[in-house]
Design goal:
Strand 10 and strand 11 form a beta hairpin. The mean pLDDT is 94. Helix 3 packs across helix 6. The chain is of the alpha+beta class. It is globular. The longest helix has 20 residues. It is built from 18 helices and 18 strands. It is 33% helix and 21% strand. The strands form five sheets. Strands 2-1-5-3-4 form a five-stranded mixed β-sheet. It has a five-stranded antiparallel β-sheet with strand order 8-9-14-10-11. It has three domains: 189 residues, Beta-grasp domain (Ubiquitin-like (UB roll)), CATH 3.10.20.30; 121 residues, Uridine Diphospho-n-acetylenolpyruvylglucosamine Reductase, domain 3, CATH 3.30.465.10; 106 residues, CO dehydrogenase flavoprotein, C-terminal domain (Enolase-like, domain 1), CATH 3.30.390. The structure holds flavin-adenine dinucleotide (FAD) and FE2/S2 (inorganic) cluster (2 copies). The site of one FE2/S2 (inorganic) cluster (FES) has 12 residues, from loops.
């Protein structure tokens, strides 16, 4: 039995837990405000909010319901457009969209309103940029974004007219959400959920952002293991070894963690280049590593950091370097039963500098043509140790071993960087595909390596 709160109603259902939340909302609950667009996480027409208790505190995030398994709704508050409507008028977010002519056919509008409601519920600063960032996963094909951005600005001004305070109280006070939100925290605390012991014969599902795009129908026919039913309260810890991260940590949790941002400031830039807000809110780090895409952004980041991963099964726990995990195209050193439970960054990594670069056809919401990370430790002007990883240049996410070895012990100079770039181009074997030709990808790799040295040391 799956129990959760949908808007202001408690739901208890025996529906197949692998059903996309979008289908449950539209076809079983008959709430047709949430739209179906791409079903691949790209358009944002199906955006809803998920509220959950994290350390006893109700916290909301936006997600694309087309990729969100019903099983992951257990114990949560799911909010659709019907759940934020004011009784007999538009709420201030809907009104701002209407006043600024930010809607034409209206197909995308619900998604934009839900993302902006997510902003109102999570607002940290007072800036328009924050509101605009919240709609980075929403696409409109007819209005043009300027009017939508103006509406976002109006919403920021409206919200700023109310005193700061706890998120939910403030969102209720400014009319972004109805008064019933006040009672949701208590309702969730009272919801009882029994986790059924199932003999899983299907997939391990994290955020579902890869699986629901690739295997949408297959997931419904098997018994799957859902490992991300609840966001971990504290997924990132410092230990004697270094930094220990739960496999279920979402990309959002990782790229907004103050400790990570302090040790690896480039993560701020990396964060906005990985998919979009709702996808980052669901996607797990383990899912990115196990997916084994040769251009997975998080795989490329962690590879350069000499990361170790922990794989857990009934047979016990096994630790292996991430660099040994990838054995061929989508071929892993992992059994079907093993769950990636931990990602461990060694302590000495924090002594060096790190930079991440990515080039894709579109800047936002696109996977890389080529991406790369460098970790580098200097002794004066000398390179003490370095590891460069690169994606999109071979069948697996790769460490550029020859180039990294070549750089070790060298003085940083334009000459050294040029030689390293040439070596890197000869070390890789990309293929020509929709993201570029072999020659283009090799050239990109060289440019990204130059970009690393420019970003970190200002050397060209
Ligand atoms: C619109 C869109 C944009 C995207 N943009 C990017 C991008 O810019 N950069 C990028 O790198 N990726 C991108 N992705 C891909 C995807 O979001 C990431 O790969 C994500 O991190 C996958 O995590 P997940 O938890 O959703 O994986 P899932 O879909 O749940 O699982 C992916 C694979 O990992 C396995 N798995 C999941 N968790 C575990 C675990 N703990 N142990 C063992 N196996 C596990 C699953 O069985 C499956 O094989 C995008 C996806 C979408 C839909
Ligand atoms: S339908 Fe397009 S993101 Fe879900
Ligand atoms: S108003 Fe038509 S898609 Fe946005």
């Amino acid at each position: 039995m799956i129990s959760f709160v949908l808007n202001n109603k408690i739901i208890q259902t025996q529906t197949n837990p692998a059903t996309p939340l979008l289908d449950f909302i539209r076809y079983e609950s008959n709430l047709k405000g949430t739209k179906i667009g791409c079903r691949e996480g790209d358009c944002g027409a199906c955006t809803v909010l998920v509220g959950e208790l994290i350390n006893e505190k109700l916290t909301y995030r936006s997600v694309t319901s087309c990729l969100f398994p019903l099983a992951n709704a257990v114990g949560k508050h799911i909010v659709t457009i019907e759940g934020i409507n004011a009784e007999d008028k538009l709420n201030p977010i809907q009104e701002a969209m209407s006043n600024q002519n930010a809607t034409q056919c209206g197909f995308c509008t619900v998604g934009f309103v839900m993302s902006l409601t997510g902003y109102a519920l999570n607002k940290k600063g007072h800036e328009k940029e924050e509101a605009i960032a919240s709609i980075d996963g929403n696409i409109c094909r007819c209005t043009g974004y300027k009017s939508i951005e103006k509406a976002a600005g109006d919403i920021v001004n409206h919200c700023n007219g109310f005193a700061d305070g706890p998120n939910i109280e403030r969102a209720i006070a400014c009319g972004a959400v109805p008064a019933y939100f006040q009672g949701i925290e208590d309702t969730l605390k009272e919801l009882t959920n029994t986790k059924e012991d199932i003999e899983a014969n299907g997939w391990t599902i994290g955020g579902g952002t890869d699986l629901y795009v690739q295997k949408h129908d297959e997931l419904l026919d098997v018994k799957n293991e859902f490992i991300s039913q609840q966001l971990a309260f504290d997924p990132i810890k410092v230990t004697d070894f270094g930094i220990e991260i739960d496999g279920s940590c979402t990309v959002t949790q990782f790229v907004t963690n103050p400790m990570i941002l302090k040790d690896f400031p480039c993560v701020r830039g990396l964060g906005v280049l990985v998919s979009s807000t709702p996808i980052r809110n669901m996607a797990t780090l383990a899912g990115n590593l196990v997916n084994a895409s040769p251009i997975g952004d998080m795989s490329i980041f962690f590879l350069a950091l000499d990361t170790t991963i922990e794989l857990t099964s009934a047979q016990g726990i096994r630790s292996i370097p991430l660099s040994q995990f990838y054995q061929g195209y989508k071929k892993l050193d992992k059994t079907k039963e093993e769950i990636l439970t931990k990602i461990l960054i060694p302590k000495r990594t924090t002594l060096g500098s790190v930079n991440f670069e990515k080039v894709s056809k579109r800047t936002w919401l696109d996977i890389a043509s080529v991406n790369s990370t460098i970790w580098i430790e200097l002794d004066g002007n000398n390179i003490k140790e370095t590891r460069i990883s690169a994606g999109g240049v071979g069948p697996t996410p790769a460490i550029l071993t020859q180039t990294s070895t070549f750089l070790k012990g060298k003085n940083i100079s334009s000459q050294t960087i040029s030689e390293a770039c040439e070596m890197a181009q000869n070390e890789v074997s990309p293929i020509s595909d929709a993201r570029g030709t072999v020659e283009y990808k090799k050239l990109l790799l060289s440019q990204l390596i130059k970009g690393h040295f420019f970003e970190l040391f200002g050397i060209v």
